[in-house]
């Protein structure tokens, strides 16, 4: 599934912990970075690397919002929907994104370019409107800045 | 009320995250002197206890007391886990430390590990903190390269390994036993207590879990002494805290202030009052899980544990959410409860089933489809959820629910059609 170099990198992550299973979250994160999402083949591969059953990997993948058990777009937008942000511009940001992208919360655009995900508090409560694009934080956003950012996503 | 600069002193300096500047400001001197003087670990724990420092994550437990629970001579390794999962709505204080003074946290990690007899620390950060994670990893690398971490630090015989570890977007992982399960690579359900982590934590070994801001206080306390810290602010809950304000104020931000100040002074002063000249309607004073305060309560309350307890609320994570007169409190509560329903880990039935049920009822009230009995049903649900689960997430959902229902009942009643017709009948 992976080149020798990547396998060695993942084995090095495994060796940082007293038990292989404890490398679960960091290994899954790296595998997701490489493959875009955590399909069942990837999960089975991780299970073998960590000497656990595939179900044990699936239990973890299915728990965390930042692990994708389904395909996502090339650019994943995480937009806060929680009270502090909602009251300071993120509600308008949501309306704008849903209209512009033509998708609902957790939807992916037909061209596979964007996935729009609701985030539960990003710890940017003083600097909303805020969203993450592929985990990079963008704060104090105007709607025109949002348009520029989206245009920059190929 | 005056602003302090203990934890925040370096935030605005250029390149404040780099080792060079931190050391130029005297950084790591306290850690190295602890090692070179071979300070008695128990004496350090006693010092932290005497300082009165309470945990800054939300529960407010005595830090020194927590450290003293680590059993001696179990033959097992002891772990320190730093909790940087910062996810309580309204809270963005730890992020300031992680991004702008990562070495201050790491120096605290060094001293804390020495005091509790730990040689391995995990700094657990939420993965959404991309910049914070980068800076902490870079700071750890710098500290190793400078011989501040690793084997036999500066010839002291003390070994310390520090690792960055990251979550994957779950609020529950800020609960200390869930955090441990997250690091262990299992589904991160909170554990039953006892045993407490100090006795049986990470990998079954004694473990101390402390919040980022808590640990960052340690070098200052060890350097300046317990009395210095105990003399800051309110004597029952001393020290400075990083207060993060969000919502409808003119200026949002994080301010460091000693405990015991008046909340109204923070809102009127640094925050510049309510946005657009509006009137205040409510304040959620300690993160979304704390009980709501009315304007007349805000005018009186002092921000320390006993002061806020007098008004039935809590300081939690020092996240102050300000809501103006235009806020629809039913709408606000729907928003908050959706958070808990989403973040409930699903382990305990009252929380897993109860929090979405609360949302369902609130949504129908908000959409004008509610019944008057729904208000009693919500109160009844809260009674049957609170205190009946493994962790405090469900309690944290019930506190804003019951307090907002009680203090703003008229707004809920106003959205219930049958209540309007009942009132008409009574009026006739």
Describe this structure in words.
The longest helix of chain A is centred in the middle third of the chain and has 19 residues, at about 85-100. The mean pLDDT of chain A is about 95. The radius of gyration of chain A is 18 Å and the shape is elongated. In chain A, about 45% of the residues lie in helices and about 10% in strands. Chain A has about 150 residues and is α+β, with helices and mostly antiparallel strands. Chain A has 2 domains: about 5-60, Arc Repressor Mutant, subunit A (Orthogonal Bundle); about 75-150, Glutaredoxin (3-Layer(aba) Sandwich), CATH 3.40.30.10. In chain A, α3 (about 40-50) crosses α4 (about 55-60). Chain B folds into 3 domains: about 20-230, Rossmann fold (3-Layer(aba) Sandwich); about 240-325, Ubiquitin-like (UB roll), CATH 3.10.20.600; about 330-420, Up-down Bundle (de novo design (two linked rop proteins)). In chain B, β5 and β6 form a beta hairpin. In chain B, α6 packs across α9 and α16 (about 375-385) packs antiparallel against α17. Chain B starts with 18 loop residues before the first helix and ends with a helix. At the A-B interface, α2, α4 and α5 of A face β3, α8, β5, β8 and α14 of B.
Topology:
The complex is a heterodimer of chains A (about 150) and B (about 425).
Chain A: H1 4-15, H2 24-35, H3 40-49, H4 54-61, E1 75-80, H5 83-101, E2 114-119, E3 131-133, E4 136-138, H6 143-151
Parallel strand pairs in A: 1-2
Antiparallel strand pairs in A: 1-3, 3-4
Helix pairs in contact in A: 3-4
Chain B: H1 19-24, H2 29-36, H3 41-51, H4 63-68, E1 79-84, H5 94-100, H6 102-116, E2 120-125, H7 130-145, E3 161-166, H8 176-184, E4 207-211, H9 212-224, H10 226-230, E5 240-247, E6 253-258, H11 263-268, E7 280-284, H12 295-298, H13 305-309, E8 319-324, H14 329-343, H15 349-366, H16 373-385, H17 393-407, H18 409-413, H19 417-427
Helix pairs in contact in B: 2-6, 5-6, 5-7, 6-9, 14-15, 14-17, 15-16, 16-17
């Amino acid at each position: 599934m992976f080149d020798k170099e990547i396998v060695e990198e993942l084995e090095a992550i495994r060796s940082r912990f007293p038990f292989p299973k404890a490398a679960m979250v960091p290994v899954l994160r790296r595998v997701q970075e490489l493959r875009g999402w955590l399909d069942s083949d990837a999960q089975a591969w991780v299970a073998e690397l960590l000497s656990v059953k595939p179900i044990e990997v699936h239990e973890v993948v299915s728990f965390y919002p930042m692990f994708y058990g389904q395909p996502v777009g090339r650019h994943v937008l995480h937009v806060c929907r929680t009270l502090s942000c909602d009251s300071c511009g993120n509600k308008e940001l949501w309306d704008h994104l849903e209209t512009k992208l033509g998708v609902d919360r957790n939807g992916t655009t037909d061209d596979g370019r964007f996935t729009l995900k609701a985030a539960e508090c990003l710890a940017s409560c003083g600097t909303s409107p805020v969203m993450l694009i592929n985990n990079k934080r963008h704060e104090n956003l105007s709607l025109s800045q949002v348009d520029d950012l989206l245009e920059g996503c190929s | 009320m005056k602003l302090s600069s203990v934890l925040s002193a370096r935030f605005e300096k250029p390149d404040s995250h780099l080792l060079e500047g931190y050391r130029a400001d005297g950084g790591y001197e306290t850690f190295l002197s602890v090692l070179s003087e071979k300070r008695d670990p128990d004496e350090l724990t006693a010092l932290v206890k005497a300082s009165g420092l309470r945990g800054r994550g939300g529960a407010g437990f005595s830090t020194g007391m927590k450290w003293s629970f680590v059993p001696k001579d179990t033959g097992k390794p002891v772990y320190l886990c730093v909790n940087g999962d910062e996810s309580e709505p309204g809270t963005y204080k730890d992020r300031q430390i992680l991004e702008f003074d990562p070495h201050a946290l790491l120096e605290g990690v060094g001293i804390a590990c020495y005091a509790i007899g730990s040689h391995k620390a995990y700094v657990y950060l939420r993965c959404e903190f991309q910049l914070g994670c980068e800076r902490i990893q870079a700071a750890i690398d710098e500290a190793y390269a400078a011989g501040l971490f690793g084997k036999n630090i500066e010839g002291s015989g003390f070994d310390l390994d520090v690792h960055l570890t990251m979550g994957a977007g779950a609020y529950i992982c800020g609960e200390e036993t869930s955090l441990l399960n997250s690091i262990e690579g299992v589904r991160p359900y909170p554990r039953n207590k006892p045993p407490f982590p100090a006795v049986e934590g990470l990998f079954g070994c004694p473990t101390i879990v402390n919040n980022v801001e808590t640990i960052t206080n340690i070098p200052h306390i060890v350097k300046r002494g317990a009395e210095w810290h105990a003399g800051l602010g309110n004597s029952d809950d001393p020290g400075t805290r990083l207060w993060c304000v969000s919502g409808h104020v003119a200026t949002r931000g994080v301010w460091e202030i000693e405990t015991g100040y008046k909340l109204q002074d923070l809102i009127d002063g640094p925050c510049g009052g309510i946005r657009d000249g509006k009137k205040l309607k409510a304040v959620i004073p300690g993160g979304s899980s704390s009980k709501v305060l009315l304007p007349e309560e805000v005018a009186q309350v002092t921000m320390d544990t006993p002061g806020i307890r007098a008004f039935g609320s809590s300081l939690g994570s020092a996240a102050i959410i300000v809501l103006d007169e235009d806020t629809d409190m039913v709408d606000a509560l729907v928003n908050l409860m959706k958070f808990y329903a989403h973040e409930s880990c699903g382990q305990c039935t009252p929380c897993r089933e109860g929090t979405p049920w609360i949302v369902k009822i609130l949504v129908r009230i908000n959409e004008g489809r509610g019944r008057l009995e729904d208000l009693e049903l919500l109160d009844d649900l809260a009674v049957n959820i609170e205190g009946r689960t493994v962790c405090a997430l469900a309690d944290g959902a019930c506190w804003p629910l019951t307090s907002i229902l009680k203090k703003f009942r008229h707004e809920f009643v106003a959205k219930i059609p049958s209540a309007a017709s009942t009132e008409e009948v009574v009026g006739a």
